Automatic annotation (TrEMBL):
Belongs to the LysR transcriptional regulatory family. Residues 2-59 form the HTH lysR-type domain. PROSITE patterns: HTH_LYSR (PS50931). Keywords: Activator, DNA-binding, Transcription, Transcription regulation. Signal peptide: none annotated. It comes from the Bacteria. Pfam families: HTH_1, LysR_substrate. The keyword Transcription applies. It comes from Nocardia acididurans. InterPro entries: LysR_HTH_N (IPR000847), LysR_subst-bd (IPR005119), WH-like_DNA-bd_sf (IPR036388), WH_DNA-bd_sf (IPR036390). This is LysR family transcriptional regulator.
Length: 307
């Protein structure tokens, strides 16, 4: 009988590519991961890994086994959800992952609703870049998370997760008001006009940083990024100070400084609610999904009435 814990390590290796990354994500030592994977190969009776220096690659048999592992884990999650539905009230811990602008605009009201409706549920929020959320969900350090993709930065589906559409936002070019030109401008024209300006972008490796670089490259130039900031409030203050121009999604651009002009582009950011396969009907996950949607609807209505 194959050991589900070892199978989970193999699944993570398929995603993270290195034994060191798997060990860090799941709180193992690298040697322990290697030993467990070697034991799994013995149990399977076929080679699962091809080793070359510090790198390992999965054999075709290992990829087949990973596919079965995803199905097995989803069935176990569904079993847990079925048992939870038999309880009289929601208890335990719900770990929620989100990005900074969603905390103050959407998540905070949702937490109030969840705490009021389910006082026995312990809520834990982690702020992280959306690019890290799928791995945290697979590693079970999160139970539900807001994940994103942008035009120019598509994100591959993860077989371990289910995700549902949640929010779509306009992306704006934020620039000092003195720079702004009247009238709508298509994305390439608006961006190419700023090819000589310094740019402000997120930390390298974040989704926002990648989006800025690729959007500018699609407009025909590579941005000269001078400043890095992950909080869009800080980004807008830097723009107001004349430090550069930036791309800012709608949630981060609700209250710009008076000296900042926002030009809507044809670029979009899409947010989805993600959770592990098999957990959609878990009472805690279902309650969180409902609360998030109610909060997003209320926020949208508030923004519409304010303009």
């Amino acid at each position: 009988m194959l050991d589900i814990r070892k199978l989970r390590l193999l699944r993570e290796l398929a995603h993270r590519q290195t034994i060191a990354a798997v060990a860090e994500a799941l709180n193992y030592t690298p040697s322990a991961v290697s030993q467990q994977l070697t034991a799994l190969e013995r149990e399977a009776g076929v080679p699962l890994l091809e080793r070359g220096g510090r790198r390992v690659t999965l054999t075709p048999a290992a990829h087949t086994l990973v596919g079965h592992t995803e199905s097995i884990l989803a069935i176990l999650e569904q079993a847990t959800a079925d048992l939870a539905r038999g309880r009289a009230e929601l208890t335990g811990t719900l770990r929620i992952g989100t990005f900074p602008t969603a905390i103050r605009t959407i998540l905070a009201p949702a937490l109030v609703d969840l705490s009021t409706a389910h006082p026995g549920l312990e809520l834990m929020v982690t702020e992280l870049d959306p690019v890290l959320a799928p791995g945290a969900l697979r590693a079970e350090t999160l139970d539900i998370a807001l994940v994103q993709d942008y035009d120019y930065v598509p994100v591959d589906d993860d077989a371990a997760l289910d995700a549902e559409p949640f929010l779509e936002e306009i992306v704006y070019l934020a620039e000092p008001a003195a720079f702004a030109e009247p009238g709508p401008r298509p994305t390439p024209l608006a961006l190419s006009a700023r090819h000589e300006n310094p740019w402000i972008a997120g930390t390298p490796g974040t989704l926002c940083h990648t989006m800025t670089v690729r959007a500018c490259q699609a407009a025909g130039f590579t941005p000269r990024i001078r400043h890095h900031a992950d909080d869009f409030g800080a980004v807008l203050e830097l723009v107001a100070a004349g430090a550069g121009v930036a791309l800012v999604p709608e949630l981060g651009a609700r209250t710009p400084p008076a000296t900042v002009a926002l030009t809507p582009l044809d670029t979009r950011r899409r947010t989805r609610i993600a959770y592990r396969r098999g957990t959609a009907d878990h009472p805690a996950i279902r309650a969180a999904r409902t609360a998030l949607r109610h909060s997003a609807t209320a926020a949208r209505e508030g923004w519409a009435s304010a303009h």
